[in-house]
Task: inverse folding
């Protein structure tokens, strides 16, 4: 039972992790993207459509990333070039994505695809406990194991990461050194959208293996909340995403085990968890925020 | 874009609510007789109809509820070649439904089928404004029933009971999985009927019922199915609007599938057992014939009509069998079907709820109204109604 919950946590948390990692990059660069849910939806449909047309789920991942990147590019144009309100732009793009994917996705609802299947890691998957929890999943789960530390390393140990973080902390410093803040933010936002798109594609071509309108069902918003309580740190994103995955999978395993718990209450667990963490960390989350993000919060208060 | 659409929906809703309350306050423009006696000859609603109108809430190719309506319409065309059948799909459950039906009446329709649950209020409006038009509604309840109206529906739990027999005969582990959306009475009756059917051939069977709290959330479905399969479930069924994720995952795991809404055997070529699906043709045909003959008022359709297998007109029927169903199982199902056709019920007593309460005593059979209000799981179901 514990193994079922933890294996489910890894599978279910993966899409949230990709989206959370993407949003971390974007916010580290000073851009909040509430359209993450929309980027995941586009990624889910893009991934599904490309997989359906080509028969190759790896091309589907690429399609999902492109679709997510495209939506975030629109966000970047609005908030970086046009300096529009980040919250308004993100939410509007989410609703746009919801409508657009529902419209164009209809023909894929009944279509079957060649989806990702679990690839047990030889040897490792045989280990009792650890094997089924960590090493009996689809390839995108394994890539996520690597993605979180790599993104941490890029953000905190490389020049590229320094540029992104400076765009989010101290734009003057970038300008002094002759870099374009706008260019850096474009890159960070689009990269974030691409990762959210991969997260969406994970749901449609590796997890549920179906396309249906609004199939992300709030996981993108969970990812945005996750970024705050992971304090913009990719490693904590990884832990937090699996925690959410565990909360989601708990609802399945408890019901299957016949433990009498109200299913609507079980479904609320991830959201209650978010509120609890936000309440416990409180102001500490804001102290860890990139400075430029705090300006976004302040601006939106007055506008 | 979507925000303005939401605003528009709110506006439309406000207009509809205002219109409805005005209609309710103002004296009825025309008051059709309520109940029993048939009016004289040529004024009978729907008599000698030349045009029939049908509205549906969704697309005609959704592999489910609305596609079934479309197939019913096609059956009408076949049965009545001279009849003009107007059809409208994707009709929302708001004022659009009333205006669409009004426009059908303007085009000469004197029999109208409103086929979605939420079309009921619009159907009432149109029926009141046009006493000469028969308006029938799919799935609703009327009280009182105007002389030119009626509702109709099937006994959905009957084919589900029969499918339960196939599941009980197929399972090796004795564990069946039921992924449902929300514990509404119709769903609970289905889960219970499925369980009773399975128990009739395998008394120790366990049906694990898990909820997704959504009519279509494929990722949650995937999680529920993985959990059920891992607990040893080897026959899976569901009550969901979208079913592909569950059926494909079940097939991939080598377990059996029992379908609901539509024949999805193409998704589970190996593991498909059987299922339940809609077949409205015969019932639509009979309603139209009754109205054309001038006999609608006072007929069984001028009421809250519920078809079942005993009446021979249940529009919810068993799907075709999959390759693994044995002749022995088919014979068991045929015998049970014959019993239902002879007036039997899956819920013939004794029926015992999960907590041990006897809900239907030995020798009694609950009426359909009671079954449509079911709020408990029977013994043999693992799960919580809450």
Result:
């Amino acid at each position: 039972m514990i193994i079922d919950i933890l294996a489910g946590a890894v599978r279910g948390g993966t899409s949230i992790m990709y989206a959370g990692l993407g949003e971390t990059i974007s916010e580290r660069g000073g851009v909040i993207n509430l359209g993450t849910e929309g980027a995941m939806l586009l990624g889910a449909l893009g991934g599904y459509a490309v997989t359906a047309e080509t028969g190759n789920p790896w091309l589907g991942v690429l399609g999902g990333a492109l679709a997510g990147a495209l939506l975030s590019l629109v966000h970047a144009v609005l908030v970086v070039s046009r300096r529009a309100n980040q919250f308004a732009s993100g939410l509007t793009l989410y609703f746009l994505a919801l409508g657009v994917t529902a419209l164009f996705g209809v023909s894929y609802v009944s279509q079957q695809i060649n989806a990702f299947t679990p690839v047990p890691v030889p040897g490792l998957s045989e280990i009792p406990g650890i094997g089924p929890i960590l090493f009996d999943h689809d390839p995108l789960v394994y890539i996520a194991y690597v993605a979180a530390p790599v993104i941490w390393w890029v953000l905190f140990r490389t020049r590229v990461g320094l540029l992104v973080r400076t765009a989010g902390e101290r734009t003057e410093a970038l300008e002094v050194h002759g870099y374009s803040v706008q260019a850096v933010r474009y890159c960070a936002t689009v990269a974030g959208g691409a990762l959210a798109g991969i997260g969406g594609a994970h749901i449609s071509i590796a997890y549920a293996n179906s396309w249906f309108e609004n199939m992300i069902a709030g996981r993108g918003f969970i990812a945005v909340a996750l970024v705050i309580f992971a304090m913009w740190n990719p490693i904590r994103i990884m832990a937090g995403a699996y925690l959410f995955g565990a909360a989601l999978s708990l609802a399945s395993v408890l019901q299957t085990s016949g433990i009498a718990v109200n299913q609507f209450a079980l479904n609320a667990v991830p959201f209650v968890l978010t509120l609890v963490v936000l309440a416990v960390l409180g102001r500490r989350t804001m102290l860890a925020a990139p400075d430029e993000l705090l300006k976004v919060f302040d601006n939106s208060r007055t506008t | 874009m979507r925000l303005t659409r939401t605003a528009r929906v709110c506006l439309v809703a406000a207009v509809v609510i205002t219109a409805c309350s005005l209609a309710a306050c103002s004296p009825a423009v025309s008051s059709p007789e309520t109940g029993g006696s048939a009016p004289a000859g040529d004024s009978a609603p729907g008599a000698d109809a030349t045009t029939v109108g049908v509205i549906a809430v969704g697309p005609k190719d959704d592999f489910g509820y609305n596609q079934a309506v479309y197939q019913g319409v096609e059956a009408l065309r076949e049965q009545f070649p001279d009849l003009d059948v107007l059809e409208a799909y994707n009709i929302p459950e708001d004022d659009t439904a009333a205006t669409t039906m009004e426009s059908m009446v303007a085009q000469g329709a004197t029999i109208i089928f409103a086929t979605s649950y939420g079309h009921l209020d619009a159907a009432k409006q149109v029926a009141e404004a046009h006493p000469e038009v028969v308006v029938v509604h799919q799935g609703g309840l009327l009280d009182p029933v105007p002389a030119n109206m009626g509702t109709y529906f099937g006994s959905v739990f009957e084919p589900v009971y029969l499918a339960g027999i196939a599941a009980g005969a197929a399972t090796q582990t004795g564990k069946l999985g039921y992924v449902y959306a929300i514990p509404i009475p119709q769903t609970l009756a289905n889960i219970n009927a499925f369980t009773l059917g399975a128990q009739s051939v395998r008394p120790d069977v366990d049906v694990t019922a898990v909820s997704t709290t959504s009519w279509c959330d494929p990722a949650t479905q995937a999680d529920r199915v993985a959990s059920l399969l891992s607990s040893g479930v080897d026959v899976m069924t569901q009550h969901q609007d979208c079913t592909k994720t569950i059926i494909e995952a079940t097939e991939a795991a080598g377990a059996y599938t029992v379908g609901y809404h539509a024949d999805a055997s193409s998704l589970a070529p190996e593991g498909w057992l059987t299922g339940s699906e809609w077949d409205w043709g015969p019932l639509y045909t009979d309603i139209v014939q009754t109205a054309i003959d001038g006999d609608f008022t006072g007929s069984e359709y001028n009421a809250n009509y519920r078809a079942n297998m005993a009446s021979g007109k249940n529009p919810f029927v068993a799907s075709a069998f999959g390759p693994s169903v044995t002749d022995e199982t088919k014979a068991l199902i045929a015998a049970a079907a014959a019993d239902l056709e002879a007036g039997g019920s899956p819920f013939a007593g004794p029926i015992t709820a999960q907590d041990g309460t006897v809900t239907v005593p030995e020798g009694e059979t609950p009426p359909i109204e009671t079954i449509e209000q079911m709020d408990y799981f029977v013994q043999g179901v693992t799960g919580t109604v809450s």
